Amino acid sequence: MSGSGARPAARPATYGQVFAVREFRPLFGSYLLSTIGDELARVALTVLVYQRTDSALLAALTFAISYLPWLLGGPVLSALADRLPRHRVLIGSDVARAVLVAAMAVPGAPLPLLLLLLLLVSLFAPPFEAARSALMADVLEGDRYAVAISLTGTVLQVAQLIGFGLGGVLLVQFSASAALLLNAATFAVSAVWMTLGLARRPAPVQDAGEETGRSLAQDTASGLRLVIGTPRLRAIVGLLWVSALFVNAPEGIATPWTLELQDALGATGLLLAANPAGTAVGGVLVGRFCPPALRDRLLTPLVVLSLGGILLAALVPLVLDRGTTAFVVVLVLLFAAGLGGACSIPLNVAFVQAVPSAFRGRAFGVAVAGLYGVQGLGAVLAGVGADLVRPSTVVALSGAIGLAAVVVPLLSLRRSAPGPAGGDPAHVACGPPAGGPSQA
């Protein structure tokens, strides 16, 4: 198990050391392929639905369907990553998605069938992501795991941009069916790559000697009880959720905020891109170049930067007149806030260190389902607020309230820190078979 009980390295691991681990390469490659394929497929389906129905609502719902399984059944579906051998969950999920997406590419398929197939494809995302994340923590020892987390976070931002751009090119040059076929091909290649590159391991619950014959609902409940009942895990997940609630809220009002800053609706994309760009750069700086001990010390400053940057960006209209200069300053401050998003790296490492491998999948589902939920809630609340007051006021409140709200989970995380001997409260509270969340 990665991280648990390992002595922290004095220096950060290198990318070469991470890629030297044979099993990491297919895990990383499949993540890159599936992300690119998913984003280009979202673009293709959204455009296809809009062309057929001329309905912006249906197009938006099509885009949102892929996130629905995480909210409705993420913790339950993620438990499969603990009940079954993880390599089988990964390979089986990709094979199923390749077949389903290929079926979606059939020209003239009825719209209700397309939406049903999209929902079925999306149901395989929670078990796949839970198995991939848990297995990555198993195969990477020590600081290699933290560096891998920063690397995959950066690649996620790049892959999304490639997927969106490639989807647009395919739609112009070919058709939505071509984009969907390419997405199906990414799943097929990923499945073959993992079949050849991953070791065969037993199901984690069997390997840990956990009780057999339990239902999926019982396994899901055990992961939820662990997260809620273990102080350190509760503090980690609480900090993730609270910060995500307020950091992501401004995205929901990006368009009216842009118009408040300057008369250029097309600049909304720049406003949305500034924070993720900072997160990508911060992930590289903190994950690759900061020693492990320094990362831990930077956690609180990074959390404060992520919310404080948003607060300062919202106050720019009080200092500068509306126009290009004010907009550029806001972009710089949002980029700085994105740098603070690198706080997820030490949090993810703490997450994995706190739990045995056998419970990572189901607890991962709990954490990610909550993240999707609070991000959506934050965007909705920001939208409601922007109908009542100026968008910049809503953003300022997000930053200020967020800074106050993270104090409690930060203090709880400090109080629950492992002792000098390396023991972790999760192991004491739940016994050797128990486990907890994976990285979110």
UniProtKB/TrEMBL annotation:
Keywords: Cell membrane, Membrane, Transmembrane, Transmembrane helix. Signal peptide: none annotated. The keyword Cytoplasm does not apply. The keyword Membrane applies. Residues 18-417 form the Major facilitator superfamily (MFS) profile domain. Its main location: membrane. The chain crosses the membrane at residues 56-77, 98-125, 145-172, 179-199, 264-286, 298-320, 326-351, 363-386, 392-411. InterPro entries: Bacilysin_exporter_BacE_put (IPR022324), MFS (IPR011701), MFS_dom (IPR020846), MFS_trans_sf (IPR036259). CDD domains: MFS_MefA_like. GO terms for molecular function: transmembrane transporter activity. It comes from the Bacteria. It is a multi-pass membrane protein. GO terms for cellular component: plasma membrane. It is found in: Cell membrane. This is MFS transporter. It comes from Modestobacter muralis.
